[in-house]
Automatic annotation (TrEMBL):
Keyword Transit peptide: no
UniProt-listed InterPro entries: ABM_dom, Dimeric_a/b-barrel, Heme-degrading_MO
A family per Pfam: ABM
Domain of life: Bacteria
Protein name according to UniProt: Antibiotic biosynthesis monooxygenase
Keyword field contains Repeat: no
Membrane-spanning parts: none
Record organism: Ornithinibacillus caprae
Annotated keywords: Monooxygenase, Oxidoreductase
GO MF, one annotated term: monooxygenase activity
Domain ABM: 66-159
Amino acid sequence: MKAYMTNGTGDFLTKLAEKHPQIDIHIMSSGAGSLAYYEGVEKKLFVAGRTYEVIVQKGDIKEEGFVAMNNIPVTEEGRPVFEDRFKNRKHEVDQFSGFQAFRLLRPLTGNTYVVFTQWESEVDYDNWVNSDTFKQSHAESPTKPSAYFADNPFLTTYYMKKDDE
């Protein structure tokens, strides 16, 4: 399955979603701007967007919630190790309070994977990140992350944009 995303103004992205009501486009916003995301459809709507392959999927993306995207540049030779690490995780995240959805997204161009998680609230996300379960799941890696990171990972966060916003 493919996933697509692009950045833009909230108004522009909302109008784009309205032009394609048959596609479930999720609009998210942050202090830095807005993002549109959809998956499963083989039709690329975004001219300047990014396309990903969904490697791991848990839960359904909801219309409300908080989204954290860990953007992780991975070296070419590190891709199999990186993906294997996620495929073989115990996935405790989907049992954590407030969890809604998880996606591991492989870029079709470039080297930056996206680890997409959606939560009922930012507090739920913070509780996960500060939990012993999170610390244990990130400590169990047999390979140090720096062995396959091409650059420093970075986090982007969003709130799902409601139709009336």
